[in-house]
Amino acid sequence: MATTAPQPPAKASPPSAPRRISLALQGGGSHGAFTWGVLDRLLEDERLEIAAVSGTSAGAMNAAALAAGHAQGGRQGARRALDKFWHSTAQQALLSPMRRTPLDRLLGRWNLDASPGYYWLSLLGRVFSPYQFNPFNHQPLRDILATQIDMSALRACRDLRVFVTATNVRTGRPRVFEQHELTLDALLASACLPHLFQAVEIDGDPYWDGGYMGNPSIWPLIYGCTASDVVLVQINPLQRPGVPDTPHEIDDRASEIAFNSSLMHEMRAISFVQRLLEQDALKEPFASRYRNMRIHMIGDEAALGGLGASSKFNAELEFLQHLKVLGRASAQRWLDSSALNDVGVRSSIDVRATFL
Predict the structure, then answer these.
(1) Confidence band (pLDDT; 50, 70, 90) for 176?
(2) Average pLDDT of the segment spanning 183-208
(3) Given this model, what pLDDT does residue 15 score?
(4) 3-state secondary structure string, 109-124?
(5) d(CA 189, CA 195)
(6) Which of 18, 48, 39 is nearest to 86 (CA)?
(7) Under 8 Å CB-to-CB from 260, ≥6 apart: which residues?
(8) What CA–CA distance (Å, rounded) separates 243 from 250?
């Protein structure tokens, strides 16, 4: 009886290399906890590798916690650092007068429009400047950053690059702080709302919130990172139905438009270059100077668009955890969709239709 020679065991297919992405993290106060949820889910998925992060305001805080934690403990360290930052923020908020009323809690409303503390602060900001009502320049966020973000680990992180944007008050231009330049003051500058806090002085120049000129800045990810896929974590609605007709609604929408304007301009430039490259309209030596960036987006415009601007000051743990759940769910939908397979191949959103 013929026997068959034993066959060598089949070799297991080598695992495919992770898809490299850069992250662009918008600012938006407490709504940044939505990004916390997105990052928490993306860090669980080893099919993705985060090469760089550009963040503004709350996006800068998320970027800093992500990188500092990653330097100390990899993906799990990054998740722990994000958890610590947002729980510390909620703990600090226990002392804040800006809290929901009992009726808001009963009805499950997250906005602070009826909060006496929020109303008082809004009125104060219209009558006095922070140089008058906050002469000692008390910034609760400084204490949170000092205790929860290891700045040395952040600057030493080699696993991913970090870019943080602030607005130079004197020149009106954005300043992008690279990793080796990051300090507590740079992070505070990126989140400095001029009606609430005194400008943050760095190297002799005053700085305000980076959202005015880059929310977030995309160009550092184009010129300072090798990954050609950018995932925008969107927390500021691009569109809203109807016409705002109350003072609060008008202020809220005007602020959204202003803080989205720089992103719109950058995306239009990216779309323009995409079309030139697709049409082979650029010849050497010019063609090699441009990169065909692939753009992806994770967001929940329906859920976040239903929240008023006052909820950006709501740092109650219950609300932050609610936003985290929304963020994780949005990231999961993105991972389950065809968008993940588009990474490394094509944009998963129509940049022109979305931003033009």
Answers:
(1) very high
(2) 96
(3) 53
(4) CCCCCCCHHHHHHHHH
(5) 13
(6) 39
(7) 215, 236, 238
(8) 8
